[in-house]
């Protein structure tokens, strides 16, 4: 297993100390975090990075840092994170592996999230040999749902209330998308 994936324009790689400040900036940006319950402090943002680093070290995969290849330093042009993770055990569809993404607002609309997520799905199905991958987001997050559809994922029509949010919270109702290995293989032929 590898902890770095290369695409045409990107590296999905292990986290570096130089990623921390921009990741904290992203997590404090109300637009980036519009579909999360709260903005994150730099300390909490750093805790997430540490957890991501450890999972990649232990398993060879996880939520990778994403860096653009055309940066001055090929490994240091951080733009966000994309990757795979085991879903929390209290999710109604657990156990499952999810795909997720979060990019700095300056890199939205350029196809980076799609490119990185397709590489992560390829890793999930060709290296990890998973039978399916899920994705979920708040019902009101149409941008992420469009990306899920671009990835070939389908809406399970099995909405759920996120177990970590109060049922009355504006983000509580979530959609669940998935793609099977067979669906993925049909797309790449």
Automatic annotation (TrEMBL):
Keyword hit for Transferase: yes
Name under which the protein is recorded: GCN5 family acetyltransferase
Domain N-acetyltransferase: 10-182
Lineage, broadest ranks: Bacteria, Pseudomonadati, Pseudomonadota, Gammaproteobacteria, Moraxellales
Record flagged with keyword Transferase: yes
PROSITE patterns listed in its UniProt record: GNAT
Record InterPro entries: Acyl_CoA_acyltransferase (IPR016181), GNAT_dom (IPR000182), N-acetyltransferase (IPR051531)
Source organism superkingdom: Bacteria
Keywords of this entry: Transferase
Pfam families, per database record: Acetyltransf_3
SUPFAM superfamilies tied to this protein: Acyl-CoA N-acyltransferases (Nat)
Molecular function per GO: acyltransferase activity, transferring groups other than amino-acyl groups
